[in-house]
Design brief:
- The complex is a heterodimer of chains A (274) and B (165).
- The longest helix of chain A is centred in the C-terminal third of the chain and has 17 residues.
- Helices cover 36% and strands 26% of the residues of chain A.
- Chain A is an alpha+beta fold and 274 residues long.
- Chain A has a 6-stranded antiparallel β-sheet. A 6-stranded mixed β-sheet of chain A has the order 7-10-11-12-13-14, with helices on both faces. A two-stranded antiparallel sheet of chain A has the order 8-9.
- Chain B is mainly β.
- Chain B contains 2 helices and 13 strands.
- The N terminus of chain B is likely disordered.
- Chain B starts with a strand and ends in a 14-residue tail after the last strand.
- Chain B has one domain.
- Classes of the chains: A alpha+beta (274), B mainly beta (165).
Chain lengths: 274, 165
């Protein structure tokens, strides 16, 4: 049978051994508490004494932890709304990302306990955030470019000779040379045709302003096979590559310009070489 | 990779193993790109891999706790491995080991998510005071070494600049 006195003694002894404290400046200490975030990391609090007041903060930890896993706390998102409600429920101030509470020194102990509860709750929002969606093809290509090139500008702007402004998927390269890259994807022939028309129009419109060796269309070849006529058309105004043959167009973006504008995988049929 | 509700994706053990296998040929080919966030400075770079997966490498230092560095390998919003330098943690299962202000590393599994940590072997120390860029560099590059991430191409270490609040 569980005895309250034994259980309480054991809990309180464990509790006592888990707290520790380190001074980091004349008026500030870092407390390692007995509370934990969902991933088992221990809640640490920064406690500052200013006159008769104590300020207990999370040291910016919660926001940094949520930020590192890409949780969107935008006020319009569902998680962002929960964030706001939790802050209010725990009476927490939010100062440029820092979560904090203040009280007179006599309430320091309560404040620390309440703050430790609050920050663990807030951090738990990570588990309520929707699972990230599978990245769309343009995002996938942009992430790839960011792993390969020192200079990447997502959604780079271009101006057509007609005066029409465009945004390509990304511009990538180095300080000396940037290539404008537009992705094209489509799960059926109508969507593919629209994508091809957009690429053709845009890269035709910037002809003269931008040489062909700085224009690249990357086709999603995990989609249904692209019509050879469409690839042929695109190659009139740009180099054309496929996701599956990304090594070929990666070299091209680095500055190795092949004679052929077709940088395709062997499986992708094309009408003829440009 | 597991598809969740709608078009969401969840990381599973197979995907984590695929990324951590030497055949993934991980390389960091780009320079450090630091940005100032609300409470931290963070660098977030794509990692070259043979599967063409959207794998990223992050490193973060808290502005108010410059002795705490976190480095992580992430895909689809999930840390597959995460190093917490000078962090505090307790395992809820198994050995129930506890770290107080001590370096530990989280590993992902479907069963325990990222709650299980261990002590990594060869992460250089970051002091609690007078931290300089080389301390961060040592810990970050050791993390890359442990994860078999080769530092190649245009990779170049850049010291983070911590803003004052």
């Amino acid at each position: 049978m569980t005895e309250c006195s034994t259980l309480l003694s054991s809990v309180l002894a464990g509790e006592r051994s888990r707290w520790s404290c380190r001074r980091v400046s004349p008026d500030t200490v870092v407390l390692v508490t007995s509370h934990h975030y969902t991933d088992g990391d221990t809640v640490e609090l920064v406690v500052q004494t200013v006159g008769d007041e104590v300020i207990v903060s999370d040291g910016g930890e919660v926001l940094a932890r949520l930020d590192s896993v890409g949780v969107n706390l935008n006020a319009r998102s569902r998680v962002g709304q929960s964030w706001k409600r939790l802050l209010a429920a725990h009476a927490i101030e939010h100062d440029r990302g820092l979560l904090l509470r203040r009280a007179s020194a006599e309430h320091a102990a309560e404040l620390v306990q309440e703050m430790a509860d609050a920050v663990a709750n807030l951090d738990g929002l990570r588990l309520l955030a929707p699972a990230p969606r599978r990245p769309a093809f343009p995002e996938r290509v942009t992430t790839y470019l960011e792993a390969e090139f020192p200079l990447v500008t997502p959604r780079a702007e271009l101006a057509g000779m007609s005066g029409t402004p465009y945004r390509v998927t990304a511009a990538a390269g180095n300080d000396d040379r940037q290539v404008y890259i537009q992705t094209a994807a489509g799960q059926n022939s109508a969507a593919q045709r629209t994508a091809v028309e957009h690429c053709y129009t845009m890269f035709s419109d910037v002809n003269g302003y931008l040489p062909s060796d700085r224009k690249l269309v990357v086709l999603d070849d995990e989609a249904p096979e692209w019509r050879p006529e469409a690839i042929n058309l695109l190659s009139k105004v740009a180099f054309v590559g496929t996701w599956g043959a990304r090594d070929a167009w990666t070299d091209f973006v680095w500055g190795t310009i092949p004679e052929s504008r077709l940088l395709l995988s062997a499986e992708q049929p094309a009408l003829n070489d440009h | 990779m597991r598809r969740g509700v709608g078009s969401g994706v969840r990381v599973d053990n197979d995907l984590a193993a695929l990324l951590l296998d030497p055949a993934a040929r991980l390389e960091l080919r780009v320079p450090m790109r630091w940005e100032t966030r609300a409470t931290s400075v963070r660098a977030h770079m794509g990692v070259h891999n043979s599967h063409g997966l959207p794998l990223t490498l992050g490193v973060q230092v808290l502005t108010l706790k410059p002795w705490k560095l976190t480095a992580y390998l992430m895909i689809y919003g999930q840390h597959v491995r995460r190093l917490d330098v000078n962090g505090s943690h307790r395992n809820r299962t198994g050995d129930r080991e506890e770290w107080v202000d001590r370096t530990h590393k989280h590993k992902f599994s479907e069963q325990h998510q990222d709650t299980v940590a261990y002590t990594p072997d060869d992460i250089s120390t970051v002091p609690r005071a007078s931290v300089v860029g080389d301390h961060y560099r040592g810990a970050f590059e050791a993390f890359c070494g442990e994860q078999a991430i080769r530092l190649t191409g245009e990779y170049r270490w850049v010291d983070p600049v911590l803003p004052t609040r």
